[in-house]
Write a structure and sequence with these properties.
Strand order of the largest sheet: 1-2-8-7
Distance between the termini: 52 Å
Largest sheet: 4 strands, mixed
Number of strands: 8
Number of helices: 7
Shape: elongated
Order of helices and strands: HHEHHHEHHEEEEEE
Radius of gyration: 29 Å
Structural class: alpha/beta
């Protein structure tokens, strides 16, 4: 039956009962809130989630193949670059060798950089495709390995040639080829950008020196694209 306030304060037993009921109600409310927050990050069949389906042995094999591909992309452009340098350096006279070393060395460096960038873009489109904001990827899945491989290739290109792309249209061109949406007139004073598919920079915006853009985080063996 209903308990009046007067009966509660006059009877300690009823007061304890009300306190117990209220504490249980508060506990249920907290549990419900926690379940709602967890459901926002828990992958479901309807969400954009890639589940892990690889055993430990398969993961080792897939990562080994990914490392081989990374080395191939890094090393493959060296051969045509070396062939080009050898071909034209033989045409130089002795007194022109130092000039040729500078000119052809610079051209060879640019050719190698451009070749590795193109291979990285092709690799990303073949193995990974686009990632989307809100996507979740299990770390034991093939898609995560593809994401990891792509990030390593992009990181190598930016470390080796990134300073050449700063404040240039080539920087916008490179990141847009990888999947970013960088509008005309935007200036990139930094190239420390990852997860480019979720990067969007408007017209005439300036990304200052030292800024880092990272669009993902790993929590409890799940990669969250933010």
């Amino acid at each position: 039956p209903p308990i009046s306030p007067v009966e509660v304060f006059n009877n300690p037993t009823k007061l304890e009962l009300v306190d117990y009921i209220m504490s249980q109600y508060a506990s249920q409310e907290q549990t419900s809130t926690n379940n709602e927050e967890t459901s926002q990050h828990t992958p479901t069949l309807a969400s954009n989630h890639t589940s892990g389906n690889l055993t430990t042995g398969m993961l080792y094999v897939v990562y080994a193949l990914a490392i081989v591909w990374i080395l191939a992309v890094v090393i493959l452009p060296i051969w045509p670059t070396f062939k080009y340098l050898t071909k034209y350096s033989n045409r130089l006279h002795a007194e022109e060798e130092w000039v040729g070393a500078i000119v052809y060395g610079g051209v060879g460096y640019m050719f190698y950089g451009l070749s590795s960038v193109v291979l990285a873009v092709i690799s990303k489109r073949i193995f990974l495709g686009r990632v989307h904001a809100g996507e979740t990827i299990d770390v034991n899945s093939l898609r995560y390995v593809a994401w990891w491989m792509n990030e390593r290739l992009v990181s190598f290109n930016l470390r080796a040639f990134g300073y050449l792309l700063k404040s240039t249209s080539l920087g916008r061109w490179y990141f847009n080829l990888l999947g970013a949406r960088i509008k005309h007139g935007a200036v990139l004073m930094t190239v420390d950008i990852s997860d480019v598919d979720v990067v969007c920079i408007g017209c005439d915006c300036v990304l200052s020196q030292g800024v880092k853009l990272k669009g993902s985080v790993v929590k409890e063996n799940v990669l969250y694209i933010e």
